[in-house]
Specification:
Helix content is 3%, strand content 59%. The chain is mainly beta. The strands form 2 sheets. Strands 3-4-5-6-7-8-9-10 form an 8-stranded antiparallel beta barrel. Strands 1-2 form a two-stranded antiparallel sheet. A hairpin with a 2-residue loop joins strand 6 (128-145) and strand 7 (148-164). It is elongated and about 70 Å long.
Length: 239
C-alpha cells in the first residue's frame, strides 16, 4: 500500500527554532487510499470469475443384463400365431443420468448392445426362433426416493437376424434379416454403494417383417412383425 511519510523535528525550547542538524524524532505515515483502487487491467489480469454451485450431478453407469423373452408375431393375414419362451438373452448397457438445466434430475439416456432371442409358433407356418444382434437407443425418465428409483424407457432399436433354428440355419430368398422398431416399458431399481440393480419389463414392437411380402405370392402381401415381452435384470456399476 502506497503511503506518504512525514517527519517531525524536535524543537529547542530555549532557541525557539528547529535544530538544523538533528535527526527526525517522530515519524508517522498517512495511508494513500487512492493507490489501492485496482485498474481495469488489474481486474482482467486476475480473471476473477464467480461460478454458481451445481445443484445436480451427472451419473454414468455400465452394466450387464440377462433376460427372458415371451415372443410372438403379428401376422397379416392372420395365421393364428402362438407364443414361445426364449431364455438366453444377454446384453451390455450404458446408462447416463443427467439434469435439465440444473433444474430437474429426472432424465437419462440408455444405449444397449445385446443378443436377443425371439420367434413364433403358427398353425400354417413352420415354428421358427431367431437370434438377433440389436442396439437399443432409449430415453429414460425416472423418479428417485431414498435408495430406490422407478423409471420408464422408450426409444428405437435396430438389429440383424444372425441365426435361426432351422436345419443348418437355412435362410430362404423370402427371409428378411434386417430388424428395427420401437421398445418401451419401465421398471424399478435399488441402489447399494457403487452398484445398482434394475428389474425391467419392456415391450418390443417390431416394424420389420420376418418375411418379405411375397412369402405366399407375388400378388398378395404378407406381413409378420415381431411382438416380444422382455423381462430382464441388470446389474450396474456407477462411476
Amino acid at each position: 500500500m502506497a503511503a506518504a511519510t512525514f517527519g517531525m523535528r524536535a524543537q529547542d525550547p530555549e532557541k525557539g527554532d528547529e535544530r538544523k542538524e538533528s535527526a527526525l524524532d517522530t515519524v508517522f505515515t498517512i495511508p494513500d487510499y487512492n493507490a489501492e483502487l485496482p485498474t481495469g487491467e488489474d481486474v482482467l489480469a486476475q480473471d476473477v470469475r464467480v461460478k454458481p454451485l451445481k445443484k445436480y450431478h451427472s451419473t454414468h453407469m455400465i452394466g450387464v443384463r440377462y433376460g427372458v423373452n415371451l415372443a410372438s408375431a403379428h401376422f397379416s393375414p392372420d395365421v393364428l400365431p402362438g407364443k414361445v419362451m426364449c431364455l438366453n438373452n444377454y446384453g451390455v448397457v450404458y446408462t447416463y443420468y443427467n439434469d435439465l438445466w440444473d433444474m430437474m434430475d429426472n432424465f437419462g439416456t440408455q444405449i444397449m448392445a445385446r443378443l436377443n432371442h425371439e420367434g413364433f409358433t403358427a398353425e400354417y407356418i413352420p415354428d421358427t426362433k431367431y437370434t438377433v444382434a440389436e442396439v437399443d437407443f432409449l430415453a429414460n425418465f425416472r423418479f428417485n426416493f431414498s435408495a430406490f428409483r422407478i423409471f420408464a424407457n422408450a426409444g428405437p432399436y435396430a438389429g440383424y437376424r444372425l441365426w435361426n433354428d432351422r436345419e443348418n440355419s437355412e435362410w430362404r430368398y423370402y427371409d428378411n434379416r434386417f430388424d428395427y422398431g420401437l421398445i418401451f416399458g419401465g421398471g424399478a431399481g435399488v441402489m447399494f454403494g457403487p452398484f445398482e440393480f434394475h428389474a425391467e419389463l419392456n415391450y418390443k414392437w417390431g416394424l420389420s417383417s420376418y418375411f418379405h411380402t411375397f412369402y405366399y405370392s407375388d400378388e398378395y402381401w404378407f406381413f409378420s412383425y415381431p411382438r416380444v415381452f422382455m423381462l430382464s435384470g441388470t446389474l450396474y456399476y456407477k462411476f
